[in-house]
């Protein structure tokens, strides 16, 4: 592909250090989560290890990446200035710092510390929601991507509120609005299917067409319309049914969620099939997403029809949570970051030189061999973990799968960090440790605060 797609307004983007800092910190949480997963496979007895593992990956890696990506691309896609650079800089230490303390409390069994660190994470997410919400409010009328993002922000509010109640509930169970398993089910549903996957779907409508250089047509249109209305309704019904312990309501929501994701998988697969663009790490990973999304939905639907309230069926068919979390969410995040980080760096380092001297393309900034290797490591590891969940294979299989995923994540982190280290106008350390003052003066594209 060319350096920058022609239909986005790169001048609207925030200062370079703001999104890059999110991506780099999120990438650091990825191997930590993978190590925690390996420890769980090895049956380490270390506090609430499984909860720490889930939060390190979903909050630390996925949600911080989402926060950075929305902060970068909502202004670009919507053609409006980011509401506040200061708030965008503030959300990261609140979420990341709160998560570090929260995970440490889980691992050490110090449950009394969880409400304080949970409150820090909630505050960080609510700052993010407010900032992006104010930015989106100036972008009306909304397109499909913006409608998904607005819904995702609402899901972030609900999921984090239930998450804080769960943290408080360790010490004061009376604070919970329903039995703890019911609140856990609603929280996980709103977080994974609401906040995370709604963002993913919205982004892929934009990225899937933009970077395949195709348009939605034919059956894509009714399928997309069904997903756009059926998916959020399904998430609300599934979460509400689980909170109210109503299997009928949750079952109806689960059916809508699964069918809507199948519809979207068909749309994404058709975009990838019709593309004339050369294969990139982004599109290779999106191809995996199209397949794993349809496969996950086919497995989840009968499980949720049978009983959507049981803990093993929280994320679909029991034993295949890795198919959703790694095969769908993981590959979306990996593929997107392989474009976003080089894109941000390219604009700030090379865009002014275009036409005056030879400059690299966006896809020239990362190492192709490392990208291919981390793809196959991550794919093989995910396949082994899913196979173990379905078939109950000997312990060596999930152990090898976990090691392969860890290897892929480390190669990914090295490759992305290398883009910043070798091509960014500022050093890697300056990007990570940049101050608020640096945010205010970072590059000509910085927009004034409105707070």
TrEMBL record:
<keyword id="KW-0472">Membrane</keyword>
<feature type="transmembrane region" description="Helical">
    <location>
        <begin position="325"/>
        <end position="347"/>
    </location>
</feature>
<feature type="transmembrane region" description="Helical">
    <location>
        <begin position="54"/>
        <end position="74"/>
    </location>
</feature>
<feature type="transmembrane region" description="Helical">
    <location>
        <begin position="183"/>
        <end position="205"/>
    </location>
</feature>
<feature type="transmembrane region" description="Helical">
    <location>
        <begin position="149"/>
        <end position="171"/>
    </location>
</feature>
<feature type="transmembrane region" description="Helical">
    <location>
        <begin position="375"/>
        <end position="393"/>
    </location>
</feature>
<protein>
    <submittedName>
        <fullName>Uncharacterized protein</fullName>
    </submittedName>
</protein>
<dbReference type="InterPro" id="IPR036927">
    <property type="entry name" value="Cyt_c_oxase-like_su1_sf"/>
</dbReference>
<feature type="transmembrane region" description="Helical">
    <location>
        <begin position="111"/>
        <end position="129"/>
    </location>
</feature>
<feature type="transmembrane region" description="Helical">
    <location>
        <begin position="285"/>
        <end position="305"/>
    </location>
</feature>
<keyword id="KW-0812">Transmembrane</keyword>
<feature type="transmembrane region" description="Helical">
    <location>
        <begin position="86"/>
        <end position="104"/>
    </location>
</feature>
<keyword id="KW-1133">Transmembrane helix</keyword>
<feature type="transmembrane region" description="Helical">
    <location>
        <begin position="20"/>
        <end position="42"/>
    </location>
</feature>
<feature type="transmembrane region" description="Helical">
    <location>
        <begin position="399"/>
        <end position="420"/>
    </location>
</feature>
<feature type="transmembrane region" description="Helical">
    <location>
        <begin position="252"/>
        <end position="273"/>
    </location>
</feature>
